[in-house]
Write a sequence for this structure.
């Protein structure tokens, strides 16, 4: 029986993207012992200095974060008039960015929760940083509705808090549902991420040489000691969190889509929006995971843990969700025609051929045509190509939200009130600045926290099977022969 | 068991003098999940009660080998979800559909919103928030309930002061039998742990 086993090919990274019937492809390459996983992953946060590329990226991200600070402060001190909004186009870059960032977050939850429920073991290599990405993306998303309300100092009106006006938020509004959906999503994602981090923080605590690291990692590890009585409840809690996060993640982007679908505006008032938004969110999120994973595995030498198989799988998800998004685009047009509603028909023809035709063309070519290239395995497994295509998808998905929001608002019922939206430097600066916040947080995470879920990766290694030893191999010595 | 006859029980550690460091228990180290699984079964069969396995990751089958009863966490989470659902309904019905004045830390009055002729109590519009709070309450209970039942967070534990135990979060598997176990006798338990194939057995001080 031939099987692909990493330990049979000493020192060389094998191709684990090929399916061999009857065997499971290895998810950890060139390593057979648990200690090797610990050492390799911990090395990143234990190193005295980060790779040079990290410092370069961090400096750039900090610069953009500064720009975000400037733009937000300028907006707060001056008013939302500093953005290019006008009367029919009251939502533009702000809500585009909000939907874009919330969508990015969805891939992290999909990987951590849905793939967990489906017992997809390959998720262990990527779930930690995909979840981190979720949290940072939702933080970026939260900024935009927060600042676009104009009077930021009364943003607490969003919450049902007793106040001197004896007024309450209006719970029949999708905008309020959004407040609850996004804040619940952020809280649950953070809990999920932190729960998963605890055993690995304990690893860093136990390996730490300096007093500062011991105390810092020790405090956040909460005194975790790997007790099996604890693991029992921990595993149950993890499963429950996965089961709770799965409907949650589907609900969040559905609720985001209600912001549009529940309104009466042609182009927004569409029943296909919830599933279409969820598919789009997963599509863009996975593209962002690839965008982050490719440089991260390169920079920190994690190619044997985030293997080509992981990337190949993610590209397949991009292909599937990209095709779903393409189907939704087509179905929107069909329903617009089939409905016989004049305004609805106009909204869609105008979307493709009106004043925003270039944005629509960009959206369709990036989101529908590009991912179809992933049908070819050569493209799915080519690092430079997948990195480029993931960037293309990110751009396309940003434009999708822009097209939906701006083209529908700019040309609504009454031609006399039509306007064209032009962004100002503050619009563009805030958008770029959000990327600064995202990458700053992500780079700090890569540097100081375990980027790979060590305990979970160990669980999917062959040596973790208690019956592994019974076939005559000791986990400490690499197997050289055929296991059968 | 042979060890019972050959070993002489020493002084019970609980009775030892106060100035000496108190014994927490005995720590046995194993090299693989399979070994610790087999050993755990033996420890349970020997009738120990105050003991535990510590592993870098959850070992498949160890719960059964140790005889751990299923946790009540799912039941707690279910009722927390139900509480969230009810709380969200009451919150929305009170604030948006009623004009009642009630005391909730301060006196608050509901505001019956009339929006586009919809009924005051428009339950379909309340469903999204009811759903979100169900999930929120359930998830918070899940995580904090799990930590509370595990006795975490804690700043220190006798095991964490042991140098050998540091590899528990790396690649080694341990069985700890605590000194407070009625069946614990210093030498007899040590011999017993060694007989299970432990690569090392040592004392853990409190």
């Amino acid at each position: 029986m031939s099987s692909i086993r990493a330990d049979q090919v000493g020192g060389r990274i094998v191709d684990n993207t090929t399916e061999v019937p009857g065997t499971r492809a290895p998810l950890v390459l060139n390593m057979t012992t648990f200690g090797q996983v610990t050492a390799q992953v911990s090395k990143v946060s234990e190193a005295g200095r980060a790779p040079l590329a990290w410092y370069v990226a961090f400096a750039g991200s900090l610069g953009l974060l500064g720009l975000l600070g400037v733009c937000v402060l300028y907006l707060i001190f001056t008013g939302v008039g500093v953005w290019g909004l006008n009367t029919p186009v009251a939502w533009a870059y702000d809500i585009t960015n909000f939907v874009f960032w919330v969508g990015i977050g969805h891939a992290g939850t999909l990987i951590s929760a849905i793939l967990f429920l489906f017992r997809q073991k390959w998720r262990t290599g990527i779930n930690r940083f995909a979840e981190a990405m979720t949290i940072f993306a939702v933080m970026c998303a939260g900024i935009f509705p927060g600042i676009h309300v104009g009077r930021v100092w009364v943003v607490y009106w969003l919450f049902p808090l007793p106040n001197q006006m004896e007024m309450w938020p209006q719970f029949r509004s999708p905008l309020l549902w959004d407040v609850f959906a996004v804040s619940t999503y952020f809280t649950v994602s953070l809990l999920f991420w932190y729960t998963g981090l605890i055993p690995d923080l304990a690893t860093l605590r136990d390996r730490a040489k300096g007093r500062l690291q011991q105390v810092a990692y020790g405090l956040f590890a909460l005194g975790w000691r790997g007790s099996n009585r604890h693991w029992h409840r921990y595993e149950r809690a993890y499963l429950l969190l996965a089961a709770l996060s799965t409907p949650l993640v589907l609900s969040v982007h559905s609720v985001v889509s209600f912001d549009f679908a529940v309104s009466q505006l042609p182009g927004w008032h569409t029943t296909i929006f919830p599933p279409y938004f969820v598919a789009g969110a997963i599509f863009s999120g996975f593209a962002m995971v690839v965008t982050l994973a490719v440089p991260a595995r390169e920079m920190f030498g994690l190619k044997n843990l985030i293997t080509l198989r992981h990337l190949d799988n993610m590209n397949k998800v991009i292909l599937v969700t990209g095709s779903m998004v393409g189907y939704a685009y087509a179905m929107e047009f069909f329903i617009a025609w089939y409905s016989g509603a004049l305004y609805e028909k106009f909204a869609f023809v105008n979307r493709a051929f009106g004043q925003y035709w270039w944005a629509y063309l960009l959206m369709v070519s990036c989101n529908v045509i590009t991912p179809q290239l992933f049908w070819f395995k050569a493209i799915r497994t080519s690092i430079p190509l997948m990195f480029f295509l993931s960037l293309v998808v990110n751009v396309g998905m940003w434009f999708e939200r822009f097209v939906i929001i701006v083209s529908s608002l700019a040309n609504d019922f009454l031609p006399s009130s039509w306007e064209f939206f032009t962004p100002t430097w503050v619009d563009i600066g805030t958008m770029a600045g959000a990327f600064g916040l995202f990458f700053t947080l992500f780079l700090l995470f890569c540097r100081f926290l375990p980027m790979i879920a060590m305990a979970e990766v160990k669980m999917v290694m062959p040596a973790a099977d208690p019956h592994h030893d019974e076939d005559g191999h000791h986990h400490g010595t690499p197997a050289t022969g055929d296991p059968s | 068991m042979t060890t019972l006859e050959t070993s002489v029980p020493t002084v019970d550690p609980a009775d030892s003098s106060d100035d000496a460091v108190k014994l927490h228990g005995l720590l046995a180290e194993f090299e693989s999940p399979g070994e610790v699984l087999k050993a755990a079964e033996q420890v349970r069969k020997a009738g120990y009660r105050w003991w535990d396995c510590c592993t870098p990751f959850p070992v498949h089958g160890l719960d059964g080998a140790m005889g751990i009863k299923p946790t009540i966490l799912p039941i707690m989470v279910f009722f927390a979800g139900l509480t969230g659902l009810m709380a969200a309904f009451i919150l929305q019905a009170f604030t948006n559909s009623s004009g009642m004045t009630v005391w909730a830390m301060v006196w608050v009055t509901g505001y019956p919103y009339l929006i586009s002729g919809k009924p005051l109590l428009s339950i379909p519009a309340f469903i999204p928030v009811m759903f979100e709070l169900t999930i929120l309450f359930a998830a918070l209970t899940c995580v904090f309930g799990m930590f509370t039942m595990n006795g975490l967070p804690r700043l220190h534990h006798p095991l964490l002061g042991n140098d050998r135990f540091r590899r528990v979060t790396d690649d080694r598997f341990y069985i700890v039998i605590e000194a407070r176990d009625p069946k614990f006798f210093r030498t007899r338990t040590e011999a017993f742990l060694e007989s299970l194939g432990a690569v090392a057995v040592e004392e853990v001080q409190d």
In short: Chain A touches chain B through 71 residues (CB under 8 Å). Residues 1-11, 472-484 of chain A have pLDDT under 50 and may be disordered.
